[in-house]
Specification:
membrane; transmembrane helix; globular; mainly alpha; transmembrane
Length: 179
């Protein structure tokens, strides 16, 4: 039996799930807030400028989140010494539940990195340490931000784990045994 996980697959699938989430969120927001989105589109200077803002303000900072979440998932699997898992529903459920602490505590670790990248990308060239500290660091460590991030983090994290298991099973890297 082979090792079913690799760090690259966690990261690749995480970025893929992130892009799908952003496209889905944008589609839904365009459907339900068409006038507001159209106003933002015209204020930003057109479609390409809007797409640039979306990439700069959403995609790139959240890629930092996905990278750190993938790294934490990888280290958790190494710490738990999970190499192979059996392909039964109960074993897969135990495998995925073993990553719940990572999903619940990841915000504390990735938030300063994600918000620092967001600050650098959105506030360029008018950097102010007071604004950075108050708005992007201290202002984001709240229950409101934690719960805002919790659902996407859980979705991205568990989707990544499940896709990784599925792809590794389908590519003949085999079923595994949770020890």
């Amino acid at each position: 039996m082979n090792n079913i996980r690799s760090f690259r697959s966690f990261l690749t699938y995480g970025v893929l799930v992130l892009i799908i989430l952003i496209v889905l969120f944008e589609t839904i927001s365009w459907i339900y807030a068409y006038e507001a989105k159209l106003a933002i589109l015209s204020r930003s200077g057109g479609l390409f400028a809007y797409a640039g803002l979306l990439i700069r303000n959403s995609l790139l900072p959240e890629m930092v989140t996905v990278f750190i979440l993938s790294l934490l998932t990888y280290y958790m699997s190494r710490w738990l010494k999970i190499e192979l898992i059996d392909s039964t529903w109960s074993t897969i459920a135990r495998y995925e539940l073993s990553f719940l602490p990572v999903m619940l505590l990841a915000f504390v670790i990735f938030n300063p990195f994600t918000e620092s990248v967001r600050y650098l990308l959105t506030e360029f060239p008018d950097y102010s340490f007071a604004n950075y500290w108050d708005k992007y660091i201290i202002g984001t460590y709240s229950w409101k931000f934690y719960f805002r991030y919790l659902a996407p983090v859980m979705f991205i994290g568990y989707s990544t784990l499940t896709i990784s298991l599925l792809v590794n099973t389908l590519t003949d890297k085999g079923p595994a045994v949770l020890r």
